[in-house]
Amino acid sequence: MPNASDKRILVIRGGAIGDFILTLPALRALHERFPDCHIELMGYNRTNGLASMSGVVQGTRSIESRGVAGFFARRGPFDPETAAYFASFTLIISYLFDPDQLFQNNIASVSKAQWISGAHRPSEHESIHATAVFLRPLERLAIFDADPVPTLHLARESSSASANVWAFHPGSGSETKNWPEASWRQLLERVINQTDRKILLVGGEAEGDRLERLSFGLAGERIEVLAREPLTTVARRLSKTSLLVGHDSGITHLASAVGTPVRAIWGGTRADLWMPRHPLARRIDAPREGLSALPVEVVWNHLT
């Protein structure tokens, strides 16, 4: 590769919110290995703001733009400005699912950049955590033993007001990973009736009207609903809470990355691959019968 001052590195990352969060260690390792290098991320609009917030990339670009779309098609046509953009990098690291190497070959036709491919998700046939899987491609750059814990270094709120707020994210990208809504309602009622904690209910498109239903009829002055907000806003609010209770979801990973202790109600996915790696993260496992059989009392005992 050229001298450090001439290096331009592009990391391409698709996937869901949690996939991006679990790729943060790779971005940080690149930044620390090549501190004088210009590093950019091409990803989804919803996560690009978090990449900028991380402080380890100097620019972002949307993978959803029309100019990029042509590179996913056979024989293009290729947008000239986007082609010049790809050609400006000396190294491209892609975590896209590209089994036929169509995207890779299209970019190779316009760019001389060194290309490194990484897995878009961990294999179910191995017991290697996602963060370790996403760090693997960097071994080709002599980057070994990088910190595998995703971090977004935001100023943590230490006031008593912050300590008195518990956040709850009662959804995920799949209903198979969700604790029943009725159980969430009982848990929230316990928080209201047996503590003086304030509640921050967090959700996005996947939760639909669930947040409104869960908050209906509870003490309004003690509940805030944060729905469909930019992830940068959610990250800042979570950094001002003392606990997040959620599922295997992007929001749980986001809370862990900003240093908020999490209690992850777990079922439907492999914890050895996906559980947040932060030392303040704890798992509440579903019984053999599934999440619907997990008693509210068990979850409550993990919070108090």
Outline the structure in words.
By secondary structure, this protein is of the alpha/beta class. It has 2 domains: 4-141, 3-Layer(aba) Sandwich (Rossmann fold); 161-303, Glycogen Phosphorylase B (Rossmann fold, 3-Layer(aba) Sandwich). The protein is built from 14 helices and 11 strands. The strands form 2 sheets. A 6-stranded parallel beta sheet has the order 8-7-6-9-10-11, sandwiched between helices. The longest helix is centred in the middle third of the chain and has 14 residues, at 181-194. It starts with 7 loop residues before the first strand and ends with a helix. The model has no long low-confidence stretch (mean pLDDT 93).
Tags for this model:
Rossmann fold, six-stranded parallel beta sheet, 34% helix, 2 domains, alpha/beta, five-stranded parallel beta sheet, 304 residues, 14 helices
